[in-house]
Design a protein that fits this description.
alpha/beta, TIM Barrel
Length: about 250
């Protein structure tokens, strides 16, 4: 039985004090509710304050980063390493988000290096895949997503893959207010799970949690989570308010 995982990607929002307030408000609402694994992914500038808040308040929520470099140190201006994240108590890291791919030139090969590095350092990678509207309209969704999965997980083994969380985020649905229907999301995520089965075996594929992301809101979360292959959500704007995020966590 795969435990659902709901992760909030705060993107470039909230100052440290606001981030702490959000985490405290969220924990006040979900403390004791363990049916779902919850992760928050603040901007790097907020990680120290949120980490200290979690430690001092015994707040049992996963702490994620929004990106990382694959190297432990070096001349990589503006980057953050996996060892730096570990030192801040980070447990998860988003890798290959479409905004990183589109705006900052991240490639499938770079995503693969980051996934391997995250696993080697004991971090849980949340690896994102998804197609553009142009690719979808051209009937290229399956080929695009399959290629991203195969390349991003290249040279990993069945045991390693069980630690990875995948997130299917159709690019045309991110921040647009347009969400794929639950059936559309299930169809693509079903393909992803079949690809995993071909590459790593059915048992390993059945253990991997696959999220849906793209304009996830309280009014569509229940339908999305009812789909057999969808194991959670990677949430953007709806994770920036504690009461709204709580409704997503308690989707049932």
């Amino acid at each position: 039985m795969r435990r659902p995982i709901i992760a909030g990607n705060w993107k470039m929002n909230l100052m440290p004090g606001q981030a702490v307030d959000l985490v405290e408000g969220l924990w006040a609402d979900i403390s004791g509710y363990d049916a779902v694994e919850v992760v928050v992914c603040p901007p790097c500038i907020d990680l120290p304050a949120v980490s200290e808040c979690m430690r001092s308040g015994d707040i049992r929520i996963g702490l994620g980063a929004q990106s990382m470099h694959w190297e432990e140190s070096g001349a990589f201006t503006g980057e953050v390493s996996p060892t730096m994240l570990l030192g801040l108590g980070v447990t998860h890291v988003i890798i290959g988000h479409s905004e990183r791919r589109q705006l900052f030139g991240e490639t499938d090969q770079g995503v693969n290096r980051k996934v391997k590095s995250a696993l080697a350092h004991g971090l849980v990678p949340i690896m994102c895949v998804g197609e553009t509207l142009k690719q979808r309209e051209a009937g290229e969704t399956e080929g695009t997503v399959t290629g991203q999965v195969n390349c991003g997980l290249f040279e990993l083994g069945p045991q390693e893959i069980s630690t990875v969380v995948l997130a299917y985020e159709p690019i045309w649905a991110i921040g647009t207010g347009k969400a794929a229907t639950a059936q559309d999301a299930q169809a693509v995520i079903g393909v992803i799970r079949s690809v995993l089965g071909e590459q790593f075996g059915e048992q390993a594929a059945g253990s991997v949690r696959i999220q849906y992301g793209g304009s996830v809101k309280p009014d569509n979360i229940s339908e999305i989570m009812a789909m057999p292959d969808i194991d959670g959500a990677l949430v953007g704007g709806a994770s920036l308010k504690a009461d709204v995020f709580t409704r997503l966590v308690r989707f049932s």
